């Protein structure tokens, strides 16, 4: 994903009601775009990259012909979506108390 494509995607997602943050991470695990502060960006990136890697391993183990492309983590406070592509993944954090 090109830098300006990432910026456009972030703006489009951020415009949705209740979205608190969006992070785009490259294949090396480096955040390339985020609208969160640096510390929160690194915190979310590190933790969700590990979760995503483990989830992908489990999915490959269950069905080698299939792969995870979207992970949805729901908590009392947030709904966190992790979407994957070939060269990057995106984390979107939405307030659970806001409507769809």
From TrEMBL:
It comes from Sinocyclocheilus rhinocerous. SMART domains: Robl_LC7 (SM00960). Belongs to the GAMAD family. It comes from the Eukaryota. It holds the Pfam family Robl_LC7. Residues 6-94 form the Roadblock/LAMTOR2 domain. Gene3D superfamilies: Dynein light chain 2a, cytoplasmic. This is Dynein light chain roadblock-type 1-like.
